[in-house]
């Protein structure tokens, strides 16, 4: 059964934003205004906003610096007919990160560890895409347009959780790899692997094993590290019990 058939559009969009590691970026060529499409590696901020690490030597970066309007296509990368899987076209504006650069760098490198080799190059910069909307295709006859307020994760009141995120991720990867494997296999239906945590936010935990990515949604919204510990313990107990 296609899981996208039973998932709410906003939840599916949030999951795709958190899980996607590559996408098709469309920018506008100067003067002619012709569309230019390129393959880019992506990660996301805790609210779901996409992150890019791109070089000023690249055509798409030059296009963005001239006109920041972009669209980004993300899909499930599921086996079989690609047109049967869920995908989104996110429209918005790309802006070079002038603040919160450490968070962008940490979140991006957690998703793409190999980028550490060139993240410090002078011609590379982190960009965030501020969405203006999403066009979701979740299967035959399931096409929905969503506004940012519908799919971006609400971070209000979650300052303590966001501040603690680096320590939470480090702790999970150092001491709880067995538990993350348990989440992946028992709760999310994946096969065993070297699952690690790449991030968390009020609505879920992000897991990754090489190119495989998963999203563990929380039953309730989490805004503090203490509440997160309780929720993760309850999910681990549920996984062990096979419920």
Automatic annotation (TrEMBL):
One CC-aspect GO term: cytoplasm
Domain Pyridoxamine 5'-phosphate oxidase N-terminal residue range list: 14-137
Pfam families: DUF2470, PNPOx_N
Domain DUF2470 as annotated: residue spans: 166-234
InterPro entries from the UniProt entry: DUF2470, Haem_oxidase_HugZ-like_sf, Pyridox_Oxase_N, Split_barrel_FMN-bd
Protein name: DUF2470 domain-containing protein
Organism of origin: Afipia massiliensis
